[in-house]
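Comment on both lines for my students:
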Amino acid sequence: MSGDLLAQRFSGRLTVLCGPFGVGKSEIAISLSECLASTGRDVFLVDLDVVTPYFRPRDVSERLAESGVRLVSPPGEAAFLDLPAVPGGVCEVLSRGARGEASVVVDLGGRADGAQVFASVRDALTQGPHWDMLFVLNPYRPDSATAEVAGSVLRGVEEASRARVTGLVANPHLKQATTADDLVRGFARVEGAARALDLPVRLRCAPDGMAALVETGPVLPLRLALLLPFESAPAGAPGRVWPGMQGAP
């Protein structure tokens, strides 16, 4: 999906990414924010993951700044603590997105535990109609392998966040073992879940370099940013390994 097409769909609005643990919410938030910023727009990425100490946008703050993305996260050393803290000024940023005054992407933590923090800032959504809460599905992960399981997690997220999910994001992958066939089959499974849940698929994602292989619609290329010690980033896409894990086998 080109930056211009992404901009038409996601610029000038608030996009909240929620869903199970490990489905790729943070990577999508980072790549989507960077893609929007590449079109010259003012973009905010709000890191509201307060339950997972690893794989958070705040871990790649330098890369985001170089891409022109304005990161909103706890300041200083608090950024790397596993604490239920909402960054200062977040309500105003969310309100600007809901009013259509800025492009804002929000990364929530996994499941209902991670979505609960959003209830404290939910009133920002009443400031305008320009917002979506998108539930990320990876059908190769246990928490979103079937429509029934995904629906149960989705309802828990809605209850905890006091916000309604308005669409789905398809992110089928098997990490670095992903093939084009995996993507095609995964997209088909997400489409089936979308019908069962009566929700539209608003965005499809694929590893950078594989998007052109997919013929099932526009795709957001994911430039991996958050890596395990034994993983490597694609050329030109520096990532960060888990803090404290550099010596792991």
User: Anything to note?
Assistant: DSSP finds seven helices and ten strands in the chain. The chain has one domain: 3-241. Confidence is low (pLDDT under 50) at residues 76-83, 234-249.
